[in-house]
What we know:
- It is a single chain.
- By secondary structure, the protein is α/β, with parallel strands linked by helices.
- It is built from 14 helices and twelve strands.
- The chain has helices at residues 28-41, 48-61, 72-84, 99-107, 126-132, 151-161, 212-221, 243-253, 256-274, 302-305, 309-318, 346-354, 366-381, 383-390; strands at residues 65-69, 91-94, 112-115, 138-142, 165-168, 176-177, 180-181, 188-192, 205-209, 280-282, 296-300, 355-358.
- The model is unreliable at 402-408 (pLDDT under 50).
- The structure holds pyridoxal-5'-phosphate (PLP).
Amino acid sequence: MTATPAALGGAPRFDPPLPFARPARPPIEDFVRRLEPSYERGMLTNGALVAELEEQVAGLLGVDHVVAVSSCTAGLMLTLQAVLADRPGPVVVPSFTFAASAHAVAWNGHDPRFVESDPRTFQIDLTHAAQAVDGAAAILATHVFGAPCDPVAVQQVAGDAGVPVVFDAAHGLGGHAGGIPLGRFGDAEVFSLSPTKVVVAGEGGIVTTGDAELAARLRVGRDYGNPGDYDMRFVGLNARMSELHAALALASLGMLDETLVRRRELARRYQDGLAAVPGVRCQEIAPDDGSTFKDFTVAVDADRLGLDRDQLVEVLAGEGIDTRAYFDPPVHRHRAYAGGEVPDLPVTDATSASVVSLPIYPALADADVDRVVDAVTAAAAHAEALVAELARPGRVPARRQASLSRPG
Ligand SMILES: *Cc1c(COP(=O)(O)O)cnc(C)c1O
């Protein structure tokens, strides 16, 4: 039985509120125990723990070369710097991604050439990418929300055009495309270890590649461009990973299997529960692919649900459910990129305006998912009254929760 929505006077479904994200953290003793040897030796950055992390990830994903860096953004910057060398022209990138994808292009002095994404999978639109790649220097595609963006097909588009391809795999550590782990595709893939991602280091990134020369260049690039003799070979960054971050990353990586099992269980529960709600469509993922469910994102069809995305977000906020509109606005409309001619990307605009990501993390209980589903179900059932209530003059909107507000 579905109780009255809080916005219509019912009791909020979550009190205290349900935060949007909570990083799965290993017990602090695990972190300290791993850090101790490096710490006691006075080795605080780019030491044995970073090397161990790189080895473990290489073994886990079955890739030849792994280079740990200080963030995914820095990893993307250095990787693009390497693959774009002597290649003029824009870089094809979906607009429906996190802004750091485009930032890595822009920091290298290239323009992002934004393309559409599929409205059902939210992944880069291959037809549009194939049209846009003419005259481009490279393709940078994102595995959106941890589901693979059909990397084999993206490679094909890049290969036909004779340009390199890099994957923004920030969400994708532990995901696979048709059984092949993300990390094995393209010229390189770049993962993030920041707190909302699947494996966490506090801050950190990981580049994977089958190209020994590229890996060697990244190792120099993360160290200012210094191969060791202080004669800088090119303009690099300080993008080293510290031993402190590597210690947490190793402990977090040890939890990856259980994290993925739990995220996938929760996602399945959302999918099953939301299937009955008209106008709420879950991200489509090919049956042979494995998502990490870094995010669980649905698209709202306002005509069928009776509420648009913003109205649903407001109703859920009233229930104590914190959500995010990932990715809205789309990157091509950010002020950082809208200086020139804004490209016409109607599908992306519509997707961005309709999506909402729901809480998903290992600490979430089945009952929490059921209550979120119930809140969405109740919103659909009471849509007409809710629309009237939300439009009522003098109404005080529900306060947005701070994402890490609930302890435990
Ligand atoms: C988080 C994220 C990044 C940036 O990762 P950092 O490690 O914070 O630099 C890049 N791309 C996508 C798609 C992301 O979600």
